[in-house]
Amino acid sequence: xxxxxxxxxxxxxxxxxxxxxxxxxLNLNEWAIVFGILFGxxxxxxxxxxxxxxxKLEREREKKS
Length: 65
Prior knowledge:
It is a single chain. 92% of the residues lie in helices and 0% in strands. It is built from two helices and no strands.
């Protein structure tokens, strides 16, 4: 039973260590790029969602007329 616990804690430790290395390896400009890309993708997704809803409502109105 102790073996899976060691495997789990080892995996968590390595994952945390890798995340800290990645976070520590980026300077402020690189973080700005990462967040710019992230927020750009989120904006694109939200825009697509609401445009899809708008087109769907317009089609339903056309069918009723």
